[in-house]
Amino acid sequence: QVQLVETGGGKVAAGDSLRLSCAASGLTFSVYAMGWFRQAPGKERELVATILSDGFTKYTDSVKGRFTISRDNAKNTVYLQMNSLKPEDTAVYYCRFGGSVIWGQGTQVTVSS
Fold first, then answer.
1. Which of 14, 26, 75, 106 qualifies as a FRET site for 34, CA 20 to 30 Å off?
2. What angle do CA 55, 72, 106 make, to 5 degrees?
3. What average pLDDT does the structure give for the chain?
4. Are 4 and 97 in contact (CB under 8 A)?
5. pLDDT at 8
6. What spatial distance separates the first Cα and last Cα of the chain, rounded to whole Å?
């Protein structure tokens, strides 16, 4: 079955960087669009960044210029490089493939001011 495992979260100070990874298994990874989502306490889960199978990327406005999504099809892994982190980036981050409803356990990112 499909499994998604997100790693790389942590507690950092504002302005620091983190790199999240999402390792996928049980699917033909290269054909799917992959997305990073986040959910802050008391808020709905939101789409942060998307990367299509051809490498095209798209970001929500609040992270443009600070976050970079990338993928390594040989490793079945999608990454989210997060620079210049802000306290409002604090959330649990999840990845998703295509339009599926399968989620991993997420990885917590906490940014202190």
1. 14
2. 100
3. 96
4. yes
5. 98
6. 40
pLDDT at 109 over 90: yes
Residue 19's closest CA among 7, 11, 33, 29? Answer: 7
Q: Please say whether the dihedral angle defined by the alpha carbons of residues 92, 65, 21 and 104, taken in this order, is positive or negative.
A: positive
pLDDT tens-digit readout, 82-100: 999 999 999 999 999 998 8
Helix ranges (H only) for the chain are: none
Dihedral-angle region of residue 28 (phi above 0 means left; psi in -120 to 50 means alpha; beta otherwise):
beta
Radius of gyration, alpha carbons of the chain: 13
47, 25 in Cβ contact below 8 A?
no
Q: What percent of the chain has pLDDT over 70?
A: 100
The CA distance from 71 to 51, in Å, is 8
